[in-house]
Write a structure and sequence with these properties.
Length: 376
C-alpha cells in the first residue's frame, strides 16, 4: 500500500467534498460510521453517493448511532438498501442500551483511504467554521494505517447488534477498545467503556509527562483529576499550555461545567481562550511534536463511557500544520483573563457552573452505570 500520507480537512465544506469524492471513487467497499446522520445537506448528498456506489456493485455499509441519529426516519436509507447497501444502528434506543453510545466518525474506502475527525453528517457542519458552520477538523489518510481503521470499523459493525453486557463497569475493556496499532508514525487509538484506562487517555497522559508545548482545541472540556493535574504540572515546570474551548456551545451545560474549572487552571499558568465566531466542535491535541485528532472530547463521556476513535500522528509536517491551524483559530478567540475571570462571574453564574460540573462529572456517570448494570 506504500507509505501513509495525510491531508487535513479544515472546514466542513472540505470534509464533505473529500468524503463524497472518496465514495464516488470506491471500487470494492465503503464503510461509513457516524454518531449523527441528519436529513438535509450534506446527508442527502452523501446518501446519493452511497446509493450510486451500491448500484455499481460496491459493498456499502453504514453504521449510525441510535441516539445521535434518532431524528432519522426508519425509511431514510431504504433507497440505499434496495441495491444491496447495509445499514445498522448502534445500540437502538432501549433503557439498558441508552447510556453507552458510539461517538465515532469514520469513512473507509477499499481499505486504502480513510477519513476521520470530528465532523458528523449534519447541516451545521457546512461552511468554513468562521462565517458559517461549526469549526471542526478532520484528516484524510492513505496507506497501511487504513487497514487498522477498517478493522476497527469491522469490530464496531459486529458489536452494533449485540446485546449490551451486564455489569460493564466491572469488565475489562474489550481488546479492540484498548489496543493501539501503529503504522508509519500513525497510531490508531480506539476506546470504549469498561475497566481500565482508554488508549487515547493513556498515551495523552504519557506525552504530558515531559511536554513543553501543549495546545488543545476541544468542544467539551471536563477533564478528570489526573488530566487536570498533568496539565498544571506542565505549566508549573515552565511549559506552555494553551486550551481553546467554545465561547458558545450546542450543549450549554457542558460549557458551564467546563467554566467551573477555569479559575484553578488559570492560576496555575494555563492559558484559556474561547472561540466565539461559531461553535467550536474540534477535537485536536498537539503535544510538542505529537498530534492527536479524532472524535474524543476531554470529558467523562468520551474518556470513560462512549466508544471513540482517535489517531496519533508523529510527523514534523503534521505538527507544523496543526500549529498553523491553532494560530489562526486562537487569533479569533477571546483570551480568558486570570485577574478578572472570577470577578466577572455573578453568584448565580458560579452556582450554575458548579451544579453543571456536578451533573456531568458525578451524576451522569452514576446514572449511566446504574442503567447499564440494571439486569431488567
Amino acid at each position: 500500500m506504500g507509505e501513509t500520507s495525510f491531508q487535513w480537512l479544515k472546514t466542513g465544506d472540505d470534509a464533505f467534498s473529500a468524503l463524497i469524492a472518496a465514495i464516488e471513487g470506491a471500487r470494492k467497499s465503503v464503510c461509513l460510521e457516524t454518531y449523527i446522520y441528519a436529513v438535509g445537506n450534506p446527508g442527502e448528498a452523501v446518501r446519493s453517493a452511497l446509493i450510486r456506489a451500491a448500484q455499481r456493485g460496491v459493498f456499502v455499509r453504514v453504521l449510525i448511532d441510535g441516539l445521535g441519529s434518532s431524528s432519522l426516519d426508519a425509511e431514510f436509507f431504504d433507497l440505499l438498501r434496495a441495491p444491496g447497501g447495509e445499514v445498522r444502528v448502534f445500540n437502538p434506543l432501549t433503557l439498558r442500551r441508552l447510556p453507552v453510545r458510539s461517538h465515532r466518525k469514520l469513512l473507509v474506502v477499499d481499505r486504502t483511504l480513510a477519513i476521520t475527525g470530528g465532523f458528523n453528517v449534519a447541516p451545521e457542519y457546512l461552511g468554513d467554521g468562521i462565517h458559517s458552520g461549526w469549526r471542526d477538523i478532520g484528516i484524510r489518510l492513505t496507506g497501511p494505517v487504513v487497514e487498522t481503521l477498517d478493522d476497527s470499523f469491522e469490530a464496531m459493525w459486529e458489536r452494533a447488534d449485540q446485546r449490551p453486557l451486564r455489569f460493564p463497569r466491572l469488565r475489562r475493556r474489550n481488546p479492540v477498545d484498548s489496543r493501539s496499532s501503529a503504522s508509519d508514525g500513525i497510531r490508531v487509538l480506539p476506546s470504549g467503556p469498561g475497566r481500565g484506562r482508554n488508549a487515547f487517555l493513556a498515551e495523552f497522559l504519557n506525552c504530558l509527562e515531559e511536554a513543553r508545548d501543549v495546545r488543545i482545541a476541544v468542544a467539551y472540556f471536563l477533564p478528570g483529576l489526573a488530566l487536570r493535574a498533568a496539565l498544571r504540572r506542565v505549566a508549573a515546570r515552565g511549559g506552555r499550555v494553551r486550551i481553546l474551548v467554545p465561547g458558545k456551545s450546542d450543549v450549554a451545560i457542558s460549557l458551564r461545567a467546563g467554566r467551573f474549572l477555569y479559575g484553578r487552571m488559570l492560576r496555575s499558568g494555563v492559558e484559556i481562550r474561547e472561540y466565539t465566531p461559531q461553535v467550536l466542535h474540534a477535537k485536536l491535541y498537539r503535544v510538542d511534536d505529537s498530534v492527536f485528532v479524532g472524535s474524543s472530547n476531554l470529558d467523562t463521556r468520551s474518556l470513560h463511557i462512549n466508544h471513540e476513535l482517535m489517531v496519533r500522528i508523529q510527523h514534523p509536517q503534521a505538527a507544523a500544520d496543526t500549529a498553523a491551524w491553532f494560530d489562526a483559530t486562537e487569533a479569533m478567540a477571546a483570551p480568558v483573563d486570570v485577574m478578572t475571570w472570577s470577578r466577572s462571574r455573578s453568584w448565580w453564574e458560579r452556582l450554575r457552573e458548579r451544579w453543571s460540573f456536578l451533573v456531568l462529572s458525578r451524576i451522569d456517570p452514576y446514572v449511566t452505570r446504574w442503567l447499564a448494570d440494571d439486569p431488567r
